[in-house]
Amino acid sequence: MSSDMPRGAVRVTNLGKHYAILPRPLRRLWHTLLGVPPDASEGFWPVRHINFSLQPGQALGIVGLNGAGKSTLLQLINGALTPTEGRVETAGRVAALLELGAGFNPEFTGRENIHLYAAALGFTRSQILARFEQIVTFSGLRDYIDRPVKTYSSGMLVRLAFSVASALEPDILIIDEALSVGDGDFSRKSFDRIAAIKEQGATIILCSHVLYHIDLFCDHVLWLHEGRVKALGPTAHVLSAYRDFLDQDVVTRDGLTHPDPRTAAPPKSAPAEITSVEVRLDGVSGERLAGRSGVSTLTVDVGYRTRTTLPPPHVAVVLSSVTGRILASHDSQSLAVRPIDGRGRGRLRFVLPSIPLTRGIYRVGVYLLCERARHVYQWIDPVATLELEQTTTHQGYFLLNGHWEVVSSAPDAMAK
């Protein structure tokens, strides 16, 4: 912790972590006995030359392909790993949700682990007891709180870990993709809790492959590639470059093929689910539809079911390129009323006349989101593929909603 920094601030300077790879046992023994560190060339650096700083209340998203060094960086910031070079400075209480079960003793009960985790963050027994009921209620694990956590499922571990970490008023909250393991109902509550923590002025560091969440919660993004900083800056700028990179990566690996449908099936206890989808182009329904650029009308009917105790969900229609890059979306937040019947069922229709896309193949996806559009209950993407033809020579993805006019020629002042 640095005394010259305000609570919630983070400063990372020339940070690097090196792992030695010594294939010969005698060499490993020699280095161990003499305490001589191996040469930097004998091994690999999962992260190196990392520099950034965060002020209290800022939210940083970390993105990158698998193996880019994201989890290693978060563990260095949290103090779970010791840097080989550089340093990490934090001011205030740091709570982290990293690997499943990290920080928990598997032999201890949930109750005992709550006390253990909170004590490690510097809380007194009375402070822990004052927050205990809130933690247990939020986790939904009251019936299991006195069982050893080694008997918990991965989802239960996430619920307990997040409930503890978020309830202890952290100045800095670090989250590494773990919420993707939780069930839909808990994930919905968790994202609301993250938003509330951010509004209270805490600093958030969020690592996720779900770029929607990065875009929703984060002010800045750090893009890691092969252990180095590829880009660091405002969310809109970095995510745009990262999406371009992902598009190129898909084309390089797979070619311009139709990706397999990506569907998130809700768990049996999901608070909401998609019950039906019908996509039509000029009145014709199907999964592969042909139409005309700037002429055809796209219609998407979506049926859904939700618990009657919850606010009605939102539905979003997403148009993507053949590689999966999101080109445009439209959700139902513009509707003042989204009625559901007594069984929690509803149905909405999205209509896009004169579809403003140029010639090409496009994907249509459907997403069901919570009432604040923070958590995605379920998605089907693609649910249909559009193949559009055009008679004009317009380029790019979109048709510009503009027109040309004839302007009378003004006298040429330079004419002789």
Automatic annotation (TrEMBL):
Highest taxon of source: Bacteria
The protein's name: Teichoic acids export ATP-binding protein TagH
GO cellular component, one term: membrane
Listed SMART domains: AAA
Keyword Membrane: yes
Pfam families in UniProt: ABC_tran
Residue span(s) of domain ABC transporter: 10-251
Record-level Gene Ontology MF annotations: ABC-type transporter activity; ATP binding; ATP hydrolysis activity
Family: Belongs to the ABC transporter superfamily.
Gene (UniProt): tagH
